[in-house]
Design goal:
This protein has 245 residues and is an alpha/beta fold. Strands 3-2-1-4-5-6-7 form a 7-stranded parallel β-sheet, with helices on both faces.
Length: 245
């Protein structure tokens, strides 16, 4: 897929992995919709950084667990940038603790933020891609969606669901020329992981065969690769330093 001139929506783009992905697509000449939920200042800064390098970018707010917000987000993007040729579903949340201590409301919050949001955004983006006989969806899962993580049952379940949704949509939309792939990051240096203690991070680093923590830019390069390669679909690309083999 030729990225220069393409319209890209990156959800959860106000920090961490989403920020790096938005900037990477901006550097490839894409018009980027930088989605955020609550961190407006950070999203505006990222959009401005893309514009300062000669690109097009717009910060757009929305609670992706709400159908009306998703509709408004896409409508604003279409009015100001154009329809999405590439959708990167990166937004999400996490909850740590024993499953037996988790309330139903907390369970639903994680599933809605990490999985239902992907469904809503895909459902809204796909009609345009199908009509134009081309497009690309990149879903951000996690290595914990591949093998599960103790004390992150809801997160693991939701991210496993993202992988399953990716495979199903790749088959469903392939005849229309639309590709759907997934990235499963490992331990990445993001605000979400900074809640871990230095001792926990050191242990995770030692468990990673490449002996380092990943950078958001590692994931961003993978996203650009998947967007450009026109014969890859239905795949889950592990960007984890060998943590999951």
């Amino acid at each position: 897929m030729k990225l220069s001139g393409a319209n890209v929506l990156v959800t959860g783009a106000s920090g961490g992995i989403g920020r790096a992905i938005a900037l990477a697509f901006g550097e490839r000449g894409c018009a980027v919709a930088v989605h955020y939920n609550t961190r407006q200042q950070e999203a505006e800064f990222i959009a401005q950084a893309i514009r300062e390098k000669g690109g097009q970018a717009l910060a757009l707010q929305g609670d992706l667990t709400r159908e009306a917000d998703v509709e408004e987000l896409f409508a604003r993007m279409e009015a100001e940038l154009g329809s999405a040729d590439v959708l990167v579903n990166n937004a999400g949340t996490a909850w740590q603790g024993l499953l037996t201590d988790m309330s139903l409301a907390q369970w639903r919050q994680v599933l809605d933020a990490d999985l239902t949001s992907v469904f809503l955004c895909c459902r809204r983006a796909l009609p345009h891609m199908i009509r134009q006989k081309g497009g690309c969806v990149i879903n951000i899962s996690s290595m914990w969606g591949q093998q599960g993580a103790s004390c992150e049952a809801a997160y693991s379940a939701a991210k496993a669901g993202v992988i399953g949704l990716t495979k199903a949509l790749a088959q469903e939309e392939g005849p229309s020329g639309v590709r759907v792939n997934c990235i499963a990051p490992g331990v990445i240096d993001t605000p979400m992981n900074r809640r871990l203690t230095p001792q926990d991070m050191a242990a995770l680093r030692e468990e990673t065969p490449l002996m380092r923590i990943g950078a958001p830019e590692d994931v961003a390069r993978a996203a650009v690769f998947l967007a450009e390669n026109e014969f890859i679909t239905g795949q889950t690309l592990g960007v984890n330093g060998g943590f999951v083999l």
